[in-house]
Amino acid sequence: MPNLNYAEVWEPELLEIMIQETLTSPFITSNVKWVGARTFHFTQMSTSGFKSHNRNGGWNQGTYVQTDIPFTLEHDRDISFLVDKANVDETNATASIQNISRTFEKTQASPETDALFFSKVAQKALSLEKYHSSTPRTGSGAFTKANVFSKLKDMLKAGKLRRYKAKGALVMYVDSFIMDLLEQSTEFTRKIEMTQIAEGGMGIETRVTDIDGVPIMEVVDDERFYDKFNFDGENGGFEPVEKVTASDGVEAVTGSHKINVLIACLMTCKTVPKISSIYYKDPGDHTEGDGYLYMNRSLSDVFVFPNGKDGKIDSIYVDIDTVEYEGE
Questions:
Q1: Helix residue spans in 173-264 (DSSP H)
Q2: Residue 203's pLDDT is what?
Q3: Angle formed at CA 229 by CA 194 and CA 178, multiple of 5 degrees
Q4: What mean pLDDT comes out for the span 111-138?
Q5: What's the predicted TM-score (pTM) here?
Q6: Looking at the DSSP assignment, which residues form a beta bridge with residue 39?
């Protein structure tokens, strides 16, 4: 039984939930041609280049390679809530389906969208040479107000990121302590502003600025800003993976790392939704009980696509903390 407020004096409206909304919505795409239940195909092509012309006649033969790559969605999620008719009446409808839906979308669905994106892009970047680094929060080599600007500039120069920066396709996400240091930096002269980003009729308030034309966005709610998550916790939702030290009969588990900086490319990083189903059922229209039923299913995933020149992934970067997550 949920803890409902049966007090005789109540406010019909829920308290405002202070949480950062979805930050990665620009990466969500619906431009996908489906060929299977949860698989779509990406066609990758590369060609050879010019060769020296022979004036005695003849043409150099080039080669091209076209590869059909399947991508399968794995992040399949659902939840339902039953609100008994009596609970709706006795709490002045603060336990209504509308309030549960709003609270769920704001505190669970939106943060999980970001968590999936950040962790998937981070894991891919960690597998690539030249596109990841580790920086401690304190001690030798840590970010400081004196070096934060130059460190971020260097990250934007990593590998082939310059080509995507020139196209205006990069977005940099930073932890709040990075944005704090930028505000104190004597090297960084750009203005950092608190702004509201409209998304779905809701405002996301966060600090934003830019470096060399690349938008820098603060991730205030850093619970979603780790390099990997457990999406099958006891209470649902998502949580960082806790570090486990090997002992008799217990295998070691590498804990999650907080992300300091993540750079993603709007051209190649995509959150791909397949199913987004929300159902509201009145009492009598279902067999779950005498109440109002809310059901929500989401099938989606995050993919980082290779470039169109040589089939390599070269458009992302992540910098993580050196400390593994050990629980609260």
A1: 176-184
A2: 44
A3: 30
A4: 96
A5: 0.86
A6: 72
pLDDT, one tens digit per residue, over 185-200 is 988 877 777 655 444 4
Q: Is the dihedral of CA 171, 177, 179, 182 positive or negative?
A: negative
Q: How far apart are the C-alpha atoms of 264 and 317, rounded to whole Å?
A: 7
Instruction: Give the residue among 103, 84, 89 at the shortest CA–CA distance from 6.
Output: 89
User: Dihedral, CA atoms, 104, 101, 266, 132, nearest 10 degrees?
Assistant: 10
Task: Give 138's contacts (C-beta < 8 A, 6+ positions apart).
Answer: none
Give residue 109's identity as a one-letter amino acid code. A
Q: What's at 74, amino acid-wise?
A: E
Percent of the chain topping pLDDT 90: 48
Q: How far apart are CA 88 and CA 283, in angstroms?
A: 12
Mean pLDDT rounded to a whole number for the chain: 86
- Give the whole-angstrom CA distance, residue 300 versus residue 304: 14
User: What contacts 129, CB < 8 A, 6 or more positions away?
Assistant: none
- Tell me, what's the pLDDT at 9? 53
Locate 147 and state its tokens. 């070096």
Distances (CA, A) of 24 to 28, 115, 242: 7, 9, 25
